[in-house]
Design brief:
Elements: H1 16-35, H2 40-43, H3 46-57, H4 66-101, H5 107-122, H6 125-136, H7 140-165, H8 169-176, H9 181-215, H10 222-232, H11 236-265
Protein name: Phosphonate ABC transporter, permease protein PhnE
Organism: Janthinobacterium tructae
GO molecular function: ABC-type phosphonate transporter activity
């Protein structure tokens, strides 16, 4: 009957704990703004605008000498290689650690593996790079290892959650028909989780591109090391060329990753 709302589902009541959580978040935001010394007036003052404009003017025009562009190209390739190798290593190790982290080998193995993954991803790439530079020395090797260690923690957790949330019926059907646990995983669970895992890996590669460009600040090679060098010498035009190379590289990788993800979901 038109206008009859008796068959519409009734919204569940909101618990008091939800309201308390929202109120706590609002109070936290208000307290953050109240306690931080945010000097908006100085930020938008005429002197700040003039100083910023003078600083940015020093970046123009970018350095376009052929010899320097070759160095930038080599550093760009080095940054791409660092991010790609680090992501591949992390994806392989993350998939291995995701198996016990998903509870396939008992609760104890699950908790222990997830604790290791938490430690790996809790330490930022810059901290890993600073530690590994002592052991591996300056250069892209330490940066690659730093990216891999941090990304193992991220991908391992994401892969484990994907395995846990995977529908169990296909694997259970294979097990009932005599398949071994490893065969059921390879032919049922992994094909279902594969596209999602690949999407996670591509997304982390995008992030690692940006991280690899920054790791050079601590001496891990690539464009970041060039940027730190030229900024420290106040060679702003050369630094501008490096920054433009970073932007183009990130944009190209973002576009490639988007195309690959779209291709996998078709």
């Amino acid at each position: 009957m038109k206008g009859d709302t008796s068959m519409l589902p009734v919204a569940p009541p909101v618990r008091w704990s939800t309201w308390a959580l929202l109120a706590g978040l609002v109070l936290l935001v208000v307290a953050s703004f109240a306690t931080l010394p945010l000097k908006w007036g100085e930020f938008f003052s005429a002197d700040a605008v003039r100083t910023s404009a003078d600083f940015l003017h020093g970046f123009a025009p970018p350095e376009l000498a052929p010899a320097f562009l070759i160095k930038v190209g080599i550093a760009t390739f080095e940054t791409l290689a660092m991010s790609a190798i680090g992501t591949v290593i992390a994806a392989l190790l993350g998939a291995l650690l995701a198996l016990p982290a998903s509870g396939r080998f008992g609760k104890l193995a699950r908790n222990a593996t997830r604790a290791v993954l938490n430690v790996l991803r809790s330490i930022p790439e810059l901290v890993w790079a600073s530690i590994l530079l002592i052991a591996a020395g300056l250069g892209p090797f330490a940066g690659t290892l730093a990216l891999a260690l941090h990304t193992v923690g991220v991908l391992g957790r994401l892969f484990a959650d994907a395995f846990e949330n995977c529908p169990p019926l296909p694997a259970a059907t294979l097990r009932i028909n005599g398949a071994r646990p490893a065969e059921a995983f390879l032919y049922a669970t992994l094909p279902q989780c594969g596209p999602q895992m690949m999407s996670y890996t591509l997304y982390r590669w995008e992030n690692n591109i940006r991280a690899a460009a920054i790791l050079g600040v601590v001496g891990a090679g690539g464009l970041g090391q060039m940027l730190k060098y030229h900024l420290s010498l106040f060679q702003m035009q050369s630094a501008a060329t490096v920054i433009v190379a970073m932007l183009l590289m990130v944009a190209a990788v973002d576009g490639l990753s988007y195309v690959l993800r779209r291709a996998m979901t078709r």
